[in-house]
Amino acid sequence: MALRVKNKDFMLKAIELAKRGFGAVEPNPMVGCVIVKDSQIIGEGWHKQYGEAHAEINALADCKRRGNDPKGATMCVTLEPCCHSGKTPPCTNAIIDAQIAKVVVAMEDPSAKVSGKGIKQLEEAGIKVTLGACNKAAQLLNPGFIKQAISAKPWVILKWAQTIDAKLSADRMGPDERWISNDVSRKDCHKLRRSCQGILIGIDTLLKDDPTLTPRPSKGKNLLRIVLDSNLRIPLESKLIKTIDKSGLLVVTSQKSLEDNAQKVSKIIEKGGEVIALPQKDGYCNLGELLSELGKRDIQRLLVEGGAKVISSFLRENLADEVIVYIAPKLLAGKGDTNITTQLDDIPEIPPLFYSKTELFGDDVKMSGWLRHITQIGI
User: Fold this and answer.
1) Residues classed as catalytic
2) Which residue of 55, 119, 138, 302 has the fewest C-beta atoms within 10 A of its own C-beta?
3) Residue 76's closest CA among 13, 11, 121, 142?
4) CB 277 within 8 A of CB 253
């Protein structure tokens, strides 16, 4: 029993290490690893950057830096070690070569390339493997990775900033009113963008704000920027089109608009963008079809930044997985021109929030939670 408690403590340490990779490793999963001998940590590591060494390799390297021999040690890792070659060699080979005696794995890798094969390879090499320590906490780390592996669809995150009176923007913008949220919240939002592979808005938001939708700084992460535009109203001089060379653009429209605006479509394509037609539902893009299409494009985490109509559409169709809201200590009252609750009022029922969190960013409050229980990932 005491050994199991210690394994749990070491795994919780590995989970905290894994979180350091947020915004840098995606679409790879966040993974942490701790190597233990004689009840002491002799090496630790986490996956730090997409395309670079995995957590297990970094932990073994840390052992070497410390002058510790991992032979006969126990490795606690938050995800089943990979057994295939991708951007890096298999982690299982390195674990076997290091003569690790035991590997404690929090959760099996659900991807088809691994899915138990890594554990089997370790066991065939004579390494004892135990599975399931801190399993729930490990799943909470990487819902997008899990959902894509199970359903081939992205994890959908609804994000918005609002005032205390639920206003998303101001009708008359003063010099201090350009942003609802503060600098600290916006910095956190850009980190959130870097964790995603796609970011989505509706055409109304584009026409009103003319955003670029890029993470700043990008740190090498480029998102596919997606605009829902059933009537193909996107201006050719918009910032999204002007910055196609920096980040991809996908305009989603109707078949009729695609055929009626052939010249405009050609110009967008010439500039490097893409325009596709998807089935419509009640006059708008069929969001279920859209998620299937984005899944085919390996979009693992999709950030929906609005506006209110688009956000409410995902909620109404029960297609959202997570909600993130930044609440600023401001009251816009009559100056506010968009109230999020107005769009949400006609939704009969919204699921309860699971795993909710509240964080402070200066004077702003960030509230987040899942719209699915952990057992429903991929459903």
Assistant:
1) 56
2) 119
3) 11
4) yes
Spatial CA neighbour of 311 closest among 283, 337, 350, 279:
350
- Per residue in 93-130, pLDDT tens? 999 999 999 999 999 999 988 999 999 999 999 999 99
Nearest to 166 by CA among 155, 153, 180: 180
Residue 18's nearest CA partner among 65, 54, 42, 52 is 54
CB 9 within 8 A of CB 2: no
* Residue 223 contacts residue 197 (beta carbons within 8 Å): yes
CA distance from start to end of the chain:
35
Tallying the residues shown for the chain, one arrives at 379
Q: What does DSSP say about strands 128-131 and 102-105: parallel, antiparallel, or unpaired?
A: parallel
Beta strand extents in the chain (DSSP E only): 32-37, 40-46, 74-77, 102-105, 128-131, 155-163, 167-170, 198-202, 224-228, 249-253, 274-277, 280-281, 284-285, 301-304, 322-328, 336-339, 354-361, 364-370
Q: What is the CA radius of gyration of the chain?
A: 23
Residue given tokens 């939002």 in the structure block: 189
CA distances to 8, 54, 81, 281, 318 from 89, rounded to whole Å, are: 28, 9, 11, 45, 39
Give me the phi and psi of 372, to 5 degrees please.
-140, 145
Is the backbone peptide bond immediately before 307 cis, with ω within 30 degrees of 0? yes
Instruction: Say how far apart CA 5 and CA 243 lie, in whole Å.
Output: 52
Tens of pLDDT along 249-294? Answer: 999 999 999 999 999 999 999 999 999 999 998 888 999 999 999 9
Q: Which residue has the tokens 């816009």?
A: 332
Amino acid at 98: A
pLDDT of residue 1: 39
At 9 the pLDDT is: 93
DSSP state, residue 334: G
Q: How far apart are CA 239 and CA 215, in angstroms?
A: 14
Residue 13 and residue 17: Cα distance in Å, rounded? 6
Average pLDDT over residues 194-206: 97
How far apart are the C-alpha atoms of 244 and 271, rounded to whole Å?
Answer: 7
Q: Is the pLDDT of residue 305 over 90?
A: yes
